Amino acid sequence: MPQPAFHLVEPLRKLSSVVFASPHSCSDYPEEFLKQSQLDEHAIRSSEDAFVDRLFSCAPEFGAPLLLAGVPRAYLDMNRSADELDPALIEGVRRQGHNPRIASGLGVIPRVVANGRAIYRGKIPRAEAATRIRDYWKPYHAVLQDVLNQAHAVFGEAILIDCHSMPHEAMEGSSRNRGGMPEVVLGDRFGAAAGRDVVDRIEACFSAAGLKVTRNAPFAGAYVTQAYGRPSRRQHAIQIEIDRSLYMNERTIEPAPHFEEVAGLLRGVVGQIVEIGRECVPVAAE
Asked: Is beta strand 158-166 parallel, antiparallel or unpaired with respect to 235-243?
């Protein structure tokens, strides 16, 4: 049986225009993929947003849907365009211009995991790449747009919170971090993907919880924020990156002893973010 393309956890009643999504937290690796890879099962998880699905699992309790990818990032990256195909990995693909994500091995079908470690021994057939995109990428993005459309139809706006995690080392040595390394990075593509007021209020939710927040550096958002962020149409997309060292052991890929404490802290943040989307008057009530 093939894996599902996504898991959509709906609230009993939708109370907010906010939608949460986690495209990189799946840890269910297809058996045939593991056989193809030259990495062991631990190494292949290194670029996974481990446990982010658990950190945001409370969203439906507050009245907001939560969308989870059904396959892991190393197998297929939902935060890339379907045409970001890597000619160094996929047979029959020609190079078309310079794309830094593809060049670094992080196209829609990644060639490498963290620290540039190659996933495969050689290339994969183009037909296999097309099958993955057809069976997993397209259904995930179809349901994501559908959920956003539903929110917009009811509330007159939609706010997508695209949930990710970042390696602690990603923030080390940054000249922007003189006040201490940020624990949360909000990406709105420098204002192109979300209205300033929406992002200001989301930042305030994290700050009120005592977390250090910065914007767009070093993560401004990738395909999801670019594709779904349409603030002029009242469809906002904000990428959230959380420092993995806050809640997990990055070396062993296990929850930290204080994981539940951090999850409780973020539960409060999630509830406040959902409240932002509750303030819109449902269109049906007008």
From this structure: parallel
